[in-house]
Amino acid sequence: MKKFSHLFIWLQIALLLISQANGQTKPAPAPRDRILILISIDGFRADYLEKFKPPHLMALAAGGVRAEKMISMFPSMTFPNHQTIVTGLWPEHHGIIHNNMYDPEFKERFAYNKVELSDSRWWGGEPIWATAIKQGLKADCMFWPGTGVKMAGMLPTEFKPYDNHADPYGCVDPVLAWLDQAPENRPSLIITYFHHVDSESHREGTESPVIAQTVKEVDDAIARLVAGIHGRRLQKVVNIIIVSDHGMTDISPDRVIELRDFVDMGKVQVDFSGAVAGLRPLTGDADALYQKFAGKEKHFHVYRKENMPERYHFTDNRRIPPVVLVADDGWYIGKRAAGEPPVKNMNKATHGFDPELPSMGATFIANGPAFRHGVTIKPFENVNVYNLLCATLGLKPAPNDGDDRLLDEVLAK
After folding, report:
1. Which residues are the active-site residues?
2. What pLDDT digit, counting tens, does each position of 41-70 carry?
3. What number of CA atoms fall less than 13 Å from residue 286's CA on the CB side?
4. What is the mean pLDDT of residues 82-100?
5. What's the rounded Cα separation, in Å, for the pair 409 and 139?
6. What is the pLDDT of residues 104-142, one digit of tens each?
7. Strand, coil or helix: what is 104?
8. CATH topology of domain 34-249+363-410
9. Per-residue model confidence as pLDDT tens digits over 371-396
10. Where does residue 287 rank: exposed (0-12), middle (13-18), buried (19+ CB within 10 A)?
């Protein structure tokens, strides 16, 4: 029975790709009549298609548009980049500058796994679901970082907050249920999110056989979604964009830069650490804190906030600490106090490094009647995705930091 199910899924995908290759028997639907499904596979590195060869994702990439890689925003963390993808804003402009951060005006901390997520004041920008609803469309969202928070004054039409217990099929079955609604109630935009590849990569490392199995499970879930679209005869109106937020690289307890080796930990506030560290001097003297690291940069770089590399777009926000350290690929910045024992069960892989590194490359795939077929495009920054989402659905985008380069490269003429 399981073998028959897999054969059925393969048949549905083959029919979908053949129909695309042979062209449309009817005029393609106008943007406002389309359905767009945006999928994030957290931590799905740009080279994972070739490394693991997941057949269903490879088929979607071959039959649509794929990027050599998509370039994340700095830092290459989950929350900043998911917010950039749906708003078209750099993290310094939408305010989610890290998974963990401190706001000196609020005098409060934000943590990705805490109740602060429900507070709208942390979240800037107009996400694509708000843009769609403001312009008369229905937009449903599940599991995407920030789901359940009012942004631009709005919630999605329907939404499911993040559930880390949901298996990959649990990330697509609610999507199919939304598609089963009557046409007048059916959403034009659906957003879903898979955490599984990222979570297992952190725990097991990028070379673990567990990652190959996890990629297969996500790939099977994508196949279930595509088969469900075809089974509902929606393949001529449904378009799919698959992204990831960042890549992943292995780390080791043997490659740790300890902050305590440079500074008295009792005189500094550590807003975040890891691949990138953000420091605030409790004395108020940022220059003195910077000098503690300057000239001693072995396996990391230190910056004053105002002197960050321009391509990082990481200066114009009060939540960015005055001193920022960026580790080299595969190194990790630790914040243990003097005498504190080594961290037990340290993650085996992480992200957050310079987005230009090959290991931090993210994935982009677009497949459906609105998009070109069999095209590979050059790397681009994910800040440009929002405008593509809007154009696919015929929406006027909110002001943002992206441009329209993807419209010509991805959309069918």
Report:
1. 78
2. 999 999 999 999 999 999 999 999 999 999
3. 14
4. 97
5. 25
6. 999 999 988 775 667 899 999 999 999 999 999 999 999
7. coil
8. Alkaline Phosphatase, subunit A (3.40.720)
9. 999 999 999 999 999 999 999 999 99
10. exposed
> Three-state secondary structure along 3-36?
HHHHHHHHHHHHHHHHHHHCCCCCCCCCHHHCEE
pLDDT at 21: 46
- Distance between CA atoms of residues 312 and 246, nearest Å: 14
How do the domains of the chain map onto residue ranges?
34-249+363-410, 256-346
Distance CA 325, CA 320 (A): 12
Non-local (6+) Cβ contacts of 343 within 8 A are 253, 334, 336
Q: Classify residue 262 as exposed, middle or buried by CB count within 10 Å of its CB (0-12, 13-18, 19+).
A: middle
Q: Which residues contact 78 (CB under 8 A, 6 or more apart)?
A: 42, 99, 112, 145, 198, 245, 246
Phi, psi of 151 (to 5 degrees): -125, 140
Half-sphere exposure of 190 (CA within 13 A, CB side): 23
Q: Which helix (H) or strand (E) holds 291?
A: helix 286-293
**Dihedral pair phi/psi, residue 296, rounded to 5°:** -120, 25
Identify whether the C-beta of residue 91 lies closer than 8 Å to the C-beta of residue 74: yes
Structure tokens at 230: 């075809």
CA–CA separation, 58 vs 23, rounded Å?
21
Q: What is the pLDDT of residue 29?
A: 76
Q: Residue type at 241? A: I
pLDDT tens-digit map of 1-23: 444 345 445 545 554 554 444 44
Q: Are 221 and 193 within 8 A, CB to CB?
A: no
Q: How many CB atoms lie within 10 A of CB 38?
A: 24
User: CATH number of the domain at 256-346, please?
Assistant: 3.30.1360.180
Token readout for 33 is: 């009549």
What residue spans of 25-114 are helical by DSSP H? 48-52, 55-63, 78-87, 91-94
Residue 53's SS3 state is coil
